[in-house]
């Protein structure tokens, strides 16, 4: 970790040199693909394991895989005290709380719609990044954000929601709450200057998320996770090392490197990917309005990426 010296002569930690925009976009494409496919996989997984055990297993296996990687490259260490606020924010907020809220909502909300609502972080991140972090948003980014939100509105389409079904309504509200939780974590990651890299912190953050979720799973759902079928093990293998271990590290890496508004807009590609994978895997074919909303979101993303290149 390098340091920079302020005008007063005080040495403060600085961010390590980040990857190029091209490398960031490739990493983002991997996250969009893996997390998009994860939505129908989570839906399938809920038929074989409870929501608490699902999250406990993905954090335990994802964290274990990252501990092995960090140990092999010789960077495994206990996070210093300066990094504890980020450890708590990401571990308990972005990972534990967001994951549990999403899994409970998925029991009552279709996978495609859940993906759309869970990634409405732009509703919170873009204005808060300007007000709290003082980030500047160009006209192109404002246009891209507006297009992305318009696409979300088309995809969500509250007129199609059964407002008489309390479970469905509560499930949709839970997903919006999950989006707010993630947005606050994005702002914290952007604002905080820690001593450890995202890779060094990720396994400890997952361990922190896994402990309370595993305890809750034992208490509420019982001591036997899953039904032992091949599908259960395949879902767990994908959800842990790939969709949790790799993707959470990649997302926090991108959060630290890209402006908050840019990152939150780019993540709107995940619900688009989730809808496509849900259609392929679960037969939930997108309607005309859904295709229109996806097209608008992609146009907004292209606008934001073009602004970032400038």
Can you give me a brief rundown of this structure?
By secondary structure, this protein is mainly alpha-helical. Helix content is 73%, strand content 2%. The protein has twelve helices and two strands.
How does the SSE layout of this entry go?
Elements: E1 3-5, E2 11-13, H1 21-45, H2 51-72, H3 84-106, H4 111-118, H5 122-131, H6 139-156, H7 166-191, H8 198-220, H9 230-257, H10 260-266, H11 269-282, H12 288-309
Antiparallel strand pairs: 1-2
Helix pairs in contact: 1-4, 1-9, 1-11, 2-3, 2-8, 2-9, 3-7, 3-8, 4-11, 5-7, 5-10, 6-12, 8-9
Total strand segments: 2
Based on helices, strands and strand pairing, what is the structural class? mainly alpha
The overall average pLDDT, rounded, is 80
Share of residues in strands = under 5%
Q: Taking strands numbered 1, 2, ... along the chain, how are they ordered across the largest sheet?
A: 1-2
Helix content: over 70%
User: What order do the helices and strands follow?
Assistant: EEHHHHHHHHHHHH
Output the number of helix runs.
12
Q: How would you characterize the largest beta sheet?
A: 2 strands, antiparallel
Rounded to the nearest angstrom, the radius of gyration is: 19 Å
Per the principal axes of the C-alpha atoms, what is the gross shape?
Answer: globular
Report the uncertain regions.
1-18
> Termini, distance in Å?
29 Å
Pick out its properties.
310 residues; mainly alpha; two-stranded antiparallel sheet; 2 strands; 73% helix; disordered N terminus
Can you walk me through this structure?
Strand 1 and strand 2 (11-13) form a beta hairpin. The longest helix is centred in the C-terminal third of the chain and has 28 residues, at 230-257. The chain has 310 residues and is an all-alpha fold. It has a two-stranded antiparallel ribbon with strand order 1-2. The protein has helices at 21-45, 51-72, 84-106, 111-118, 122-131, 139-156, 166-191, 198-220, 230-257, 260-266, 269-282, 288-309, and strands at residues 3-5, 11-13. Mean pLDDT is 80; it is low at 1-18.
């Amino acid at each position: 970790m390098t340091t920079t010296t302020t005008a007063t002569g005080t040495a403060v930690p600085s961010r390590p040199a980040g990857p190029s925009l091209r490398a960031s976009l490739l990493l983002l494409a991997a996250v969009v693909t893996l997390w998009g496919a994860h939505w129908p996989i989570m839906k399938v997984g809920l038929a074989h394991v409870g929501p608490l055990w699902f999250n406990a297993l993905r954090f335990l296996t994802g964290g274990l895989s990252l501990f092995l990687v960090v140990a092999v490259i010789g960077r495994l260490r206990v996070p210093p005290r300066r990094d504890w606020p980020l450890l708590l924010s990401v571990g308990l907020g972005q990972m534990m709380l967001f994951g549990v809220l999403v899994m409970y909502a998925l029991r009552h909300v279709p996978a495609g719609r859940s993906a759309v609502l869970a990634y409405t972080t732009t509703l919170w991140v873009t204005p808060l990044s300007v007000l709290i972090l003082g980030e500047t948003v160009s006209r192109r980014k404002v246009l891209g954000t507006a297009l992305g939100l318009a696409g979300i509105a088309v995809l969500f389409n509250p007129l199609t929601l059964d407002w008489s079904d309390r479970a469905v309504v509560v499930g949709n509200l839970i997903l919006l709450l999950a989006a707010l939780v993630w947005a606050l974590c994005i702002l914290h990651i952007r604002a905080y200057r820690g001593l450890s890299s995202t890779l060094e912190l990720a396994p400890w953050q997952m361990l922190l998320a896994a402990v309370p979720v595993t305890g809750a799973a034992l208490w509420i759902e019982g001591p036997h996770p899953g039904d032992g079928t091949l599908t259960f093990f395949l879902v767990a293998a994908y959800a842990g090392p790939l969709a949790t271990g790799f993707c959470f590290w990649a997302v926090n890496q991108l959060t630290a490197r890209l402006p908050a508004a840019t990152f939150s807009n780019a993540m709107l590609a995940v619900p688009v990917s989730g809808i496509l994978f849900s259609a392929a895997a679960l037969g939930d074919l997108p309607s005309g309005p859904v295709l229109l909303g996806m097209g608008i979101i992609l146009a907004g993303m292209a606008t934001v990426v073009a602004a970032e290149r400038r």
